[in-house]
C-alpha cells in the first residue's frame, strides 16, 4: 500500500506538534507533501514558526512549511494562550528554527497541490481553524472533487464545548470557514472532543514518552506537562487530551476509532451557540449525512502506536 499523501494544516499548539511528529515518524503510511500554518491557538507569526520548530525537532528540516491566513474569514481572531502558553509551544525549551518558510501562500499550495496530484490522492488534515481550507475551496471550487478525504480535529457532540458551553475551539474561531468545509462535498472524517477527551495523557503514558530518553520523547513529555494543567483544572481529568494526534493516528490505524456517518451542520448565526457542530448522532433531522463523526477510541492502542512511532525520531 503506497504511503498516503497528505497536507497538514495546523496551528501549533503542543497537540498539533505531537500530531506532526507522529506523521513525520511514519513514512510507510504517510507522505507529508507540506505543512500549512494558520492562525489559531496563537497568531500566525507563531504558528508558522512553531511548525518549523517541530519539523526540526523531528529531524526533517526539508519539510515544506507555508504561512497561511492570519485571521478568520469574517471575524476577529480568538487565540488560546491560556491553554498553550504565550509561544504556543510552552513546556520544552526548543531552539528557534533555522529552516526557512517555503515561498508562497498556504492557500495557493493547497490549491496547486490538489490540481497537480492525481484526483482523489491527497488527504487534507486540518488541526486548527478551517480558514486556509475554506479559503482554498472558495478561491478554487474545482478542488473539492479532487480531495481524497478531509480528516480534521474539531467539533463536539456529547462533550459539547471547550471554548464556550457549546463550541469546540477550532470550529468556534472560524465558524464560517467550517460551514464552507462541511458543505464542500469531499469525504470528511471528524475527530471531535467526544474522542479526543478519551485520549488522555495520564502520568504512566507521559512517563513512557519521557522514558524514550530522546530529545523528541523528552520534549513531548514537557509539552504535555505544560498543556495538561488547563484540562486537569477545568475537567478534573487524569491528563491532557491529545486532540490533534487522533487525526494522524487515524491515517495509520483507522481501526483505533469508531464513529457514525451522519449529518453535521455548523451554527454561524446564534451568539449563544456560535460554532456549535450540530451533529445528528441519532439521525433525527432527515438531513443528508456529510461526515464520519468519531465517537470512540482504543486509547491504549493509540498511546502504544504513538510511543512506538515517537521512538523512531
Ligand atoms: O479544541 C482543541 C483544538 O483546538 C486542538 O486542535 C488544539 O490544538 C486547538 O487548536
Ligand atoms: Ca490545533
From TrEMBL:
Lineage: Bacteria, Pseudomonadati, Pseudomonadota, Alphaproteobacteria, Rhodobacterales
GO terms (BP aspect): purine nucleoside catabolic process
Protein name: Purine nucleosidase
Domain Inosine/uridine-preferring nucleoside hydrolase per the UniProt entry, residue ranges: 6-304
Cross-referenced InterPro entries: I/U_nuclsd_hydro_CS (IPR015910), Inosine/uridine_hydrolase_dom (IPR001910), IUNH (IPR023186), Ribo_hydro-like (IPR036452)
Cross-referenced CDD domains: nuc_hydro_IU_UC_XIUA (cd02651)
One GO molecular-function entry: purine nucleosidase activity
Alphabetically ordered keywords of this record: Glycosidase, Hydrolase
Pfam families: IU_nuc_hydro
PROSITE patterns named in the record: IUNH (PS01247)
Record bears the keyword Hydrolase: yes
GO cellular component, one term: cytosol
